[in-house]
Write a structure and sequence with these properties.
disordered N terminus; protease; Retropepsin-like_bacterial; 161 residues; Peptidase_aspartic_dom_sf; alpha+beta
């Protein structure tokens, strides 16, 4: 169990250390949060801590439900290759390059744009993401979380508003 904890934590730390690539890029429009509360779309999401110490949730990426670990240490939303394929995200493993480094060495992947990431009605459109080689679960990182009003942990509950 400790090995799994350190593996997921290491992946989160690796992503948290990721900086935008050295390649100059055209400025992308800022992601937009559009959260509208209705009876079907709660404004607050409460997650229970799992036995491994992490908080998991399902959010829609481009309309496709994807299981994530909520990783407050990750800079960017990162998808597994399988999740990216299911969400219709175009990527080419032959184009993967080093996008960061972690405890186990270089982290390889490809930068992508996601149309929408939606969790319980909390939508961020036009969001930057990564597809990472060897990632076993997708990571819901700060470039999504920072658009929320609050992210808090109390005991074994994480609340996203």
């Amino acid at each position: 169990m400790k090995a799994a904890f350190f593996a997921v934590t290491g992946a989160g730390i690796a992503l948290g250390l990721l900086l935008p690539g050295a390649k100059p890029k055209a400025a992308a429009p800022a992601p937009v949060l559009a959260a509208v509360a209705t009876a079907d779309q709660p404004r607050e999401t409460v997650l229970e801590r799992e036995d491994n110490g992490h908080f998991f949730t399902v959010a829609d990426v481009n309309g496709e439900p994807i299981k994530f670990v909520v990783d407050t240490g990750a800079t960017t939303v990162a998808l597994t290759m399988d999740d990216a394929r299911r969400a219709g995200v175009k990527f080419d493993p032959g184009q993967f390059e080093v996008v960061g480094s972690g405890a186990s060495g270089a982290v390889r992947g490809q930068e992508v744009e996601l149309n929408d990431v939606v969790l319980d009605g909390k939508r961020v459109s036009g969001i930057h993401g990564l597809v990472l080689d060897g990632l076993t679960i997708s990571l819901l990182g700060q470039n999504y979380l920072r658009h929320l009003d609050s992210v808090s942990i109390s005991g074994d509950k994480m609340t996203l508003k």
